[in-house]
Every structure is written in C-alpha cells, then in structure tokens.
Amino acid sequence: MRDEYDIESLNPRKNLYTNRLKRQITININEDTIAYFKHLSDQYGLPYQTLINLYLTDCAKNKRELQMAWN
User: Fold this and answer.
1) 61 SS3 class
2) CA gap 22, 37 in Å, rounded
3) Who is most buried in 15, 33, 53, 69, counting CB within 10 A?
4) Tens of pLDDT along the chain (71 residues)?
5) 18, HSE (Cβ side, Cα atoms, 13 Å)
6) What are the domain boundaries of the chain?
7) Model-level pTM?
C-alpha cells in the first residue's frame, strides 16, 4: 500500500445513476399490504421493497390520482 496516491491522475467517471438516487425514509404500512408485496416478491424473485418502489414510481410517473371510497 502506498503512503500517498495521486488523485489527479485517476480517471473520474460520471455516475450514471445519480438521477436515480434513493433516500431512506421511515413509513408505516399495513401488515396485509406488506404481506401482499412479500407474496409478489416470491413470485417475481425481487425484494418486496423494490416492488413497492416500482409501484410508487409508476404511480408518480403516470400521475395516478388517489381513488378512495369510505365505507
């Protein structure tokens, strides 16, 4: 291992994923909703948090409006 490295001679590359950065948050989600996405994650072989993110991203991208009916 060297004592010093020449940072200027490194080949810096632009991060291609900077526009897709994620931020960790805390959110309360119903147990049955989590169970639903965990079931889907078993079917598709993706982590359930990824599936939730994909669903929410699709809603935001397509500007889906919330449709609720109170019983």
Assistant:
1) helix
2) 19
3) 53
4) 778 877 777 777 777 777 778 889 999 999 999 999 999 999 999 999 999 999 999 999 999 998 888 87
5) 4
6) 28-62
7) 0.67
